[in-house]
Amino acid sequence: MNRLLLRDGHVLTMDPLLGDLPCADILVEDGRIAAVGPSLVAGDAEVVDAAGCIVLPGFIDTHRHMWQAVLRGHGADQTLGEYFTVVLGTLGPLLTPHDLYLGNLLSALSALDAGITTVQDISNVGKPTQDHSDAVVAGLVDAGIRARHSYGRGTEADLRRLRGQFGGDGSLVTLGLNAEPSGDHSTRRDWALAADLDLPIALHARGYGTVDRLHRLTGLHHGTVYIHGNGLGGYDLDLIARSGGALSVAPAIEMTMGHGLPPFREARAAGVKTSLSTDVEVAAAADMFTQMRAAFQTARYAALHQGGSERDLPTCRQILEYATIGGARALGLDGYIGSVTPGKSADLVVLRADRPGVVPVYDAARTVVSAMDRGDVDSVLVAGTFRKRAGRLTHGSLASVLEQADAVRDRLRRECLKGRR
Predict the structure, then answer these.
(1) What is the mean pLDDT of residues 345-356?
(2) 389: pLDDT confidence band, cut at 50, 70 and 90?
(3) Predicted TM-score (pTM) of this structure
(4) Contact (CB, 8 A) for 18 and 36
(5) Is 232 helix (H, G, I), strand (E, B) or coil?
(6) At 53, phi and psi to the nearest 5?
(7) What one-character DSSP code corresponds to residue 364?
(8) Burial of 192 (0-12, 13-18, 19+ CB in 10 A)
(9) What is the C-alpha separation between 388 and 351, in angstroms, rounded?
(10) H or E element: which one contains 173?
(11) Apex CA 347: angle with CA 341 and CA 349, to 5°?
(12) How many CA atoms lie within 13 A of 289 on its CB side?
């Protein structure tokens, strides 16, 4: 049995029954949390000193287009329309299967480096071949991250082929369907296919009546993740809540690309499960600290200046819940991850709380949301395995990955320049 003891950390369990433990240990056995509490007996466990650190469940990103990491920063000044034209229409088709593998691997390593242990990969690669599909999945597997690969824009035959290759819920990488907005016939086909293959659905949903249309066309599937949600009407949100769906809100992108004000207040009023996501690395930093602060700022602005009241003001604790247990609930994985609870997988992040930009810590949850960043991430575990330790990723080919990403950039520059001649 592999045993590990994280000693004397300030543990934010995100479990309402366990609460916050200012000085506690976490015992991990064979990848699962065996016990949480002060002064646990180590026995033959490896002991890791977590004094001066805040320990919490790994962050959960419920919507990220991971292949785009090799285009990182390219669209930082773009509007949503420009992103569709340049990133999806021009640059995406130039990427080879190996480029896409590299993008997913790089994005996953970036996520782990920032304390994100679970990602829903919304794969919107244009018309992927089997080689493309295999490449993006391999990138997730090789990174060692927990991920749901939500397949999109391909063929039914390719999706069925992939379905036969994936394990059950206990696997780190599982399969879902990215159901892109489309015509009535295509929508009915996609949702019927998801039901036939027993796959969870994710889809982008913005604008009044969007969810009501789906409800009338197909009925709504339990566990569907609706991405963004800007401009959804109250009836739409009520349908999501009653069907057991969830929202994935990407506040930084929604504000910079013009989607609309993130619908935190409306979702809370409707009782919709809410989570956070990073969306596209071409236009925003893909870490949960960025998203938590954007969520906190925009939600409080809406409460104070958009017809709300002080009772609608979110707290740092609520925002941290969106980034952890809220993400697990949105993905239907809260029985496995999302809190530091005995029996759950040991997906954990250790944050250094003894740095000049953090000390003194009066309230750990407020500190995480308001003052910390990826530079404070000391160690990250997925299913009890260190993916980052003492400030360094453990991936053995990191230098090569970074070098290859630069090579993709240089090749795209040459190809785009050649195309303009």
Answers:
(1) 97
(2) very high
(3) 0.96
(4) yes
(5) coil
(6) -125, 155
(7) H
(8) exposed
(9) 11
(10) strand 173-178
(11) 100
(12) 17
